[in-house]
Design a protein that fits this description.
7-stranded mixed sheet, Aminopeptidase, alpha+beta, globular, 177 residues, 30% helix, 29% strand
């Protein structure tokens, strides 16, 4: 296995979705195989890929170990007036522009190698927005702690779909520390 530093990080945008769509779906199916059996929400992932990838400013980073995909991170800037996360704050930040960090995963073999951090930084460092927001399953405190170590903090909880888990809503100012 290649070290995290040696992984090749490839950047993709909206126009690349037809090239990367199946790679994203296949990695998700591998990582969430058990969840997909018991929970319909996880089987809806292709819809989320198309939803986010359909945005003109969609941004995706996929890490590769040779030709083997290791993990990915993607998202898109918020649509003005649709920054739903602001309702979780008594006093919303004055900063306006938000990046929605939508999906992030690393395959099992590459966890705890630094691959997560490299993928996250590769997606977030070039961002021009003021803020980043994400959702993390509230039953995964270790994942939430990882995001906190990267500069995010919980601002609330939300269940955006009737069949989805309850998520911790996490916000960070950009650029990240």
């Amino acid at each position: 296995m290649t070290t995290a530093e040696a992984l090749e990080l490839r950047h993709f945008g909206h126009d690349d979705l037809p090239l990367i769509r199946q790679t994203l779906i296949d990695m998700h199916a591998e990582v969430y195989a058990a969840a997909m059996i018991r929970d319909e929400f996880y089987r809806k992932f292709p819809w989320f890929v198309d939803h986010w990838g359909g945005r003109p400013d969609f941004s995706c980073v996929i890490a590769y170990d040779g030709d083997e995909p290791v993990g990915f991170a993607y998202g898109a800037p918020a649509v003005e007036g649709r920054e739903w996360w602001r309702r979780h704050l008594v006093a919303a930040p004055e900063k306006e522009r938000t990046f929605h960090f939508s999906q992030f995963l690393v395959r099992e073999r590459w966890r705890k190698t630094g691959a997560s951090s490299r993928l996250h930084r590769a997606l977030m460092d070039p961002r021009g927005e003021d803020l980043a927001v994400l959702l993390v399953d509230a039953t995964h405190p270790k994942v939430q702690a990882l995001y906190e170590s990267w500069g995010y903090h919980q601002i609330g909880r939300d269940q955006p779909f009737a069949d989805s888990p309850v998520f911790a809503v996490m916000l960070a100012e950009l650029p990240l520390p």
